[in-house]
């Protein structure tokens, strides 16, 4: 039996990523939606504390490693579902891991990052290290929109990272870390309705999934 496909939806905050990821999951069968961070696991609970409590003392390097460890908590489940022929839709994954930490490298704003040495945060090899060996997405769709439009959309809550100047930095970092490959597509959702974006993503999945070699084992990062 051919394996299933690993489809990653990445995107900026307020890009409609989670809405689109659940919609795509409902159109694919059999399918499972996996959201990162998964806040229900032992490590996910710590991450939730880190995101929601700005006085939770965790340095940036440790936080980065926890987000990766959270992906490792789901590693066996992802392999097992793929081997059973499931489509897995991921809502955030390794590129969020890279972009958000990289964005902290020289960001000075309050409440985002810890003090101390930040040398490693600017080193892509260091950042990617802990994710090496995780399953590599077959297809990545990155939802982007311009910053002006982000600020017009519904306001942020008050989790860590939810502030406009930081989001500008995150966007630049995503564009820097996303590989320039045919199976990584950037979709500008600006000015489009939810339905228009869904249709565009669906068309991309249909055209790209023909080229996914599901008789070969999933590649690893
Ligand atoms: N985030 C998410 C990271 O900083 N690193 C990661 O590896 C991942 C998966 O966590 F600000 C950040 C991105 C976001 C925050 O994500 C919570 P959700 O999608 O808003 O729950
Ligand atoms: Mg959020």
TrEMBL record:
GO MF annotation: an example: nucleoside diphosphate kinase activity
SUPFAM superfamilies cross-referenced by the UniProt entry: P-loop containing nucleoside triphosphate hydrolases
GO biological process: dTDP biosynthetic process; dTTP biosynthetic process; dUDP biosynthetic process
Cellular component terms (Gene Ontology): cytosol; nucleus
Protein EC: 2.7.4.9
Gene3D superfamilies, alphabetized: P-loop containing nucleotide triphosphate hydrolases
Signal peptide region: none
Domain Thymidylate kinase-like intervals: 9-200
Pathway stated in the Swiss-Prot or TrEMBL entry: Pyrimidine metabolism; dTTP biosynthesis
Keywords: ATP-binding, Kinase, Nucleotide biosynthesis, Nucleotide-binding, Transferase
Similarity-based family: Belongs to the thymidylate kinase family.
Name of the protein described by the UniProt record: Thymidylate kinase
Organism: Spathaspora passalidarum (strain NRRL Y-27907 / 11-Y1)
């Amino acid at each position: 039996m051919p394996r299933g496909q690993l489809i990653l939806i990445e995107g900026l905050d307020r890009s409609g990523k989670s809405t689109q990821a659940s919609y795509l999951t409902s159109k694919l069968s059999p399918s499972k939606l996996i959201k990162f961070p998964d806040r229900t696991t032992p490590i996910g609970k710590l991450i939730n504390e880190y995101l929601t409590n700005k006085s939770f003392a965790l340095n940036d390097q440790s936080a980065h490693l926890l987000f990766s460890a959270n992906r490792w908590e789901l590693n066996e489940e992802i392999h097992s579902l793929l081997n059973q022929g499931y489509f897995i839709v991921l809502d955030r994954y390794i590129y969020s891991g890279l972009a958000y930490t990289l964005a902290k490298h020289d960001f000075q704003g309050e409440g985002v990052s810890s003090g101390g040495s930040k040398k490693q945060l600017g080193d892509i090899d260091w950042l990617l290290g802990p994710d090496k060996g995780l399953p590599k997405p077959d297809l990545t769709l990155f939802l982007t929109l311009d910053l002006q439009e982000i600020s017009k959309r519904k306001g942020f809550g008050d989790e860590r990272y939810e502030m406009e100047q930081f989001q500008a930095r995150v966007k630049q970092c995503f564009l820097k870390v996303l590989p320039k490959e045919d199976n990584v597509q950037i979709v500008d959702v600006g000015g489009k309705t939810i339905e228009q974006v869904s249709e565009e993503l669906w068309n991309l999945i249909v055209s790209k999934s023909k080229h996914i070699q599901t008789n070969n084992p999933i590649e690893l990062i």
